Amino acid sequence: PGMWKKVPGWLLDAHGPLSIPLRNAPRVARWLWRLHQATSRERVDGIADALQPMLTTTVEKWRPLAEWAGVPELIRQEGYAFLYESRSAFESDTLGRALRQTRGVAIDVLEGAAIRDFDPVISPRITHMVMLPEQGHCPNPLRLSQALANRLREHGVILSAQLGSNVLLETERGYHIMMLQPDRMPRVPIMSGEGKYFLTPMETGLRVAGTVELAGLDAEPNYQRADDLLVRARTIVPEVQWKQTSKWMGHRPSLPDSKPVVGRAPNVPNALFAFGHGHVGLTAAAPTAEIIADLAMGREPGIDIRPFAADRVAIRV
What we know:
By secondary structure, the chain is an alpha+beta fold. It has 10 helices and 11 strands. It has a domain of 177 residues: D-Amino Acid Oxidase, Chain A, domain 2.
């Protein structure tokens, strides 16, 4: 709720967290309208309730999979934190904290000097730090994906081809820039509350990731957005030095109500859908895999999957 009040400012800021090229605006208009409809307080509460049983079990679901793939070290549970540069910015995120706390997410708040006591890498300009101590992260998603793919191939698993379904799915292009060989890194992943970007300690360096660019599948990457992330990151970790950088752009497959499609395909009951996870792709992957395995084996999933039904986004097969 209230996000739409910030959108004009984001779009007018060439370095902001949201970009929609004018040539692509007509194509994404319907998707954006459906997104707007999903931002009422009632809808947001419903979406959070639907995602809660999936997202709060992610670490426990991922650990046996990573162990099976031979890479248990790639699932870490060290927490992560939101950083704010003013009390007003901290207070503007009150709803987000409330949504998490009422659904069982542990939260600790640090202020002032206590932040630097926790992690001296963080800039003294940060006034508030919201720590989520039970959350996890993966320091090398590519290596994790490759390890899983290798084990799946060994067991004869293949992914089916597209069914040609008509679905309101959009690509949210995101960027990251990796600081290679940094001389120091934050203790835990940290996110800028104002800038909406994450800094994550990785096996290969310190990754700065974020932004949403609604530019479609085929547009050339705009790596200036990755460079902008690096400039902004200096405001919260000003003392970090590095040798060189690498840049990346990828596609988040996103549905306008921020929920994935998970379940049986309409009219094709022996086809199973699992897509559209948007910003929670890695987080929700293992819980989603368990749901799909249950359906494939004729078992009842452990959570209510009706909110993830395909028909809500008008899929036709």
